[in-house]
Design a protein that fits this description.
The protein is α+β, with helices and mostly antiparallel strands. It has 3 helices and 7 strands. The protein has a domain of about 120 residues.
């Protein structure tokens, strides 16, 4: 029996090791891409919620309330065809002049409009403030002195906010308005 030296065995061994290394690298890349896709989905969901909050704010603030009222000195004042943003700013202006928040029907009308505009899967709050005066409207109630805890927002809840600053009519006082959404 004669033994011969043949390189075919070494070539087969080298091919199998090379194939094994390529498969290891490919599996690692697939696993890494899978974990990145999961993080990417969370990021995409977060980005979509933030974009939705911005769009909902723009839509709500531009919505018109056909008719609403407020009471002052025994008279009922009627306001027609005004945007939600206008009504929030007007209520703050009138509150600064001494009219109590309870005299306004604006918050209930704004709540009705917000419930039509904002997806029911979200809890929401609209907050407007100027100086020491604040209006907070939620799906359930209105408050003029409400903290984050009063809204039922837990510290673990993720809040999506769309806020902006504008000026009050006539006085040019700063007004901060925000829409807050959370699940």
């Amino acid at each position: 029996m004669k033994l011969s030296w043949d390189d075919n065995g070494q070539l087969t061994l080298f091919d199998s090791i090379l194939f094994f290394m390529i498969m290891l690298i490919a599996s690692g890349l697939f696993l890494q891409m899978g974990s990145m896709m999961s993080g990417s989905a969370d990021l995409m969901r977060e980005q979509n919620a933030s974009e939705y909050t911005d769009r909902a704010r723009l839509s709500l603030m531009a919505s018109y309330i056909p008719e609403t009222t407020y009471a002052h000195d025994g008279d009922t004042h009627l306001i027609r065809d005004r945007s939600v943003q206008y009504l929030l700013i007007e209520q703050l202006r009138l509150m600064k002049s001494g009219i109590p928040g309870a005299n306004f029907d604006f918050p209930e009308d704004i709540r009705d409009q917000a419930n039509l505009t904002i997806d029911r899967t979200y809890n929401w709050a609209v907050r407007a403030s100027s100086g020491s005066h604040t209006i907070t409207i939620t799906r359930e109630y209105t408050s003029y002195e409400m903290s984050q805890e009063d809204l039922g927002i837990e510290m673990g809840d993720h809040i999506h906010a769309s806020t902006w600053t504008t000026l009050m009519f006539e006085t040019n006082d700063k007004v901060d308005i925000g829409l807050y959404l959370w699940n």
